[in-house]
């Protein structure tokens, strides 16, 4: 990666130099970085990537395939931010660098095709995604038999899909009333991919909130949070999604904006930064200040003790953008420990990335597979029959790894286990009752 240009005083890339210079090169981030731990290459560490960003910003390097490759290999798990004593905002710097790459560097056709199809055309739009998945699900048997003839990217995407028929959950109503005395009124972000692949998580979220005295409103005009675009360099598209959500939620009418997806929550909480120079800046900052992960919110208000035993041995996996992006670690564990009959066991390397990271497991399959293999081995070592995690990408990635290893371990969002403990019945019914008909093991099915 030799540079051919002399250093210049004016930054050549739109990366904040003052924030780049906060890195003191101590190297503490290297012990937390999944790709550095796997490869031992300085250029694949946070410190090394920051050096590359600075060299490009100063005009000493350009965005060549080699330089871009080292930044692309980053999961943006933000474990380095947890380890960094200088408070370097690595995630924001990486997003700025990737936005500059998107403006000035032409990616290979495969990457352009995958980004155009998945990020730009399908994933942010639940209706399109559901329509695209219907023929895939109906032809799943034939596709499985023809797997050897399919391109690798297609095989990997099919392997991520939850097995079996799609959930029969109906759409959430616009308002879910609180049970008993209303304590709070909250708005729920229903997500895009999660709304299609894990609608039961949204139902469980609404039910548990209602059981704890929350009236839940579901704004009709909400949309994708913009995380996939922001993390892959499409900054203006991410800003457009942010403006839409800021306008869709009536902040005067709710106490909090609730999300059950770690990646979404991390981005929503940074809307103030994302739209800092926008006409909606003040409203975006106010929106960001009201965002709460469902576990964070429930632990903060104190939950009604659930009464129905849930006899499971549960290992909890920290989604990166919950633990490192939002600093939420104890709250999900606190809620799980409140469930009678449930035994929580510690997962070795619980906050190590599983390799999902948005589109990473499709765009960077080799590294994603290495990280997933370690995560599955750690889960197997616990003897748990259930893994709980608070992000849809992690739910899909870990369930895929368990299926491929033949392990009959269920994979659930913590709020689903809480809903079970409150005795809620099938999706679409806000009454209580036996939920046995909907407890199939998602990973082992």
SSE-based structural type? alpha/beta
Alpha-carbon distance between the two ends: 47 Å
Shape, please? globular
Return the CATH class of the largest domain: Alpha Beta
- Mean pLDDT figure: 90
Number of domains: 4
Strand content: 5-15%
The main sheet orders its strands as 1-3-2-4-5
CATH topology label of the largest domain: Rossmann fold
Tell me the helix content: 40-55%
Rg: 22 Å
Main beta sheet, described? 5 strands, mixed
Describe the structure.
It is a single chain. The protein is an alpha/beta fold. The chain folds into 4 domains: 88 residues, Alpha-helical ferredoxin (Fumarate Reductase Iron-sulfur Protein, Chain B, domain 2, Orthogonal Bundle), CATH 1.10.1060; 52 residues, no CATH class; 125 residues, Rossmann fold, CATH 3.40.50; 134 residues, Rossmann fold (3-Layer(aba) Sandwich). 48% of the residues lie in helices and 7% in strands. The strands form 2 sheets. The chain has a 5-stranded mixed beta sheet.
SSE diagram, text form:
Elements: H1 17-20, H2 34-39, H3 46-57, H4 65-72, H5 79-83, H6 90-104, H7 109-122, H8 126-138, H9 140-145, H10 152-160, E1 175-176, E2 184-188, H11 193-197, H12 199-211, E3 214-217, H13 227-231, H14 235-248, E4 256-259, H15 262-268, H16 271-274, H17 281-290, E5 291-293, H18 294-301, E6 313-316, H19 320-323, H20 330-337, E7 343-345, H21 360-363, H22 365-382, E8 386-388, H23 392-405, E9 410-412, H24 414-421
Parallel strand pairs: 2-3, 2-4, 4-5, 6-7, 6-8, 8-9
Antiparallel strand pairs: 1-3
Helix pairs in contact: 12-24, 18-20, 22-23
């Amino acid at each position: 990666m030799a540079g051919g240009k002399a250093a210049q005083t004016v930054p050549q890339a739109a990366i904040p130099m003052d924030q780049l210079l906060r890195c003191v090169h101590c190297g503490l981030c290297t012990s937390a970085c999944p790709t550095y731990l796997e490869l031992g290459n300085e250029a694949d560490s946070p410190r090394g990537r920051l050096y590359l960003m600075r060299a490009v910003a100063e005009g000493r390097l350009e965005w060549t395939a080699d330089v871009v490759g080292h930044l692309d290999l980053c999961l943006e798990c933000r474990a380095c931010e947890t380890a960094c004593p200088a408070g370097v905002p690595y995630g924001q710097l990486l997003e700025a660098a990737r936005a500059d790459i998107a403006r000035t560097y032409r990616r290979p056709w495969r990457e352009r095709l995958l980004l155009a199809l998945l990020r730009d055309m399908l994933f942010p739009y639940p209706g399109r995604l559901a329509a695209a998945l219907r023929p895939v699900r109906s032809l799943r048997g034939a596709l499985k038999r023809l797997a050897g003839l399919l391109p690798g990217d297609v095989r990997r995407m099919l392997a991520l899909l939850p097995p079996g028929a799609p959930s029969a959950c109906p759409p959430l109503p616009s308002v879910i009333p609180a049970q008993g005395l209303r304590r709070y009124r909250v708005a729920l972000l229903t997500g895009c991919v999660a709304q299609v692949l894990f609608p039961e998580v949204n139902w469980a979220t609404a039910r548990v909130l209602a059981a704890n005295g929350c009236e839940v409103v579901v704004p009709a005009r909400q949309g994708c949070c913009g995380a996939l675009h922001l993390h892959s360099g499409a900054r203006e598209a991410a800003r457009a999604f942010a403006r839409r959500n800021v306008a869709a939620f009536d902040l005067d009418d709710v106490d909090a904006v609730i999300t059950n997806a770690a990646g979404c929550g991390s981005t929503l909480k940074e809307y103030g930064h994302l739209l800092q120079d926008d006409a909606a800046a003040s409203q975006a900052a106010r929106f960001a200040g009201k965002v709460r992960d469902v576990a964070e919110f429930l632990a903060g208000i104190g939950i009604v003790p659930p009464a129905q035993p849930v006899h499971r041995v549960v290992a909890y996996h920290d989604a990166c953008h919950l633990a490192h992006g939002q600093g939420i670690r104890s709250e999900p564990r606190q809620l799980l420990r409140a469930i009678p009959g449930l035994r929580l066991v510690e997962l070795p390397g619980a906050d190590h990335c599983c390799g999902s990271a948005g589109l990473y497991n499709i765009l960077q399959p080799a590294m994603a597979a290495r990280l997933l293999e370690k995560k599955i081995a750690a889960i197997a070592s616990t003897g748990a029959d259930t893994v709980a995690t608070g992000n849809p990408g992690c739910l899909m990635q870990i369930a895929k790894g368990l299926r491929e290893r033949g392990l009959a371990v269920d994979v659930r969002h913590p709020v689903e286990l809480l809903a079970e403990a409150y005795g809620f019945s099938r999706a679409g019914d806000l009454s209580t009752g036996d939920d046995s008909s909907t407890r199939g093991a998602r990973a082992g099915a």
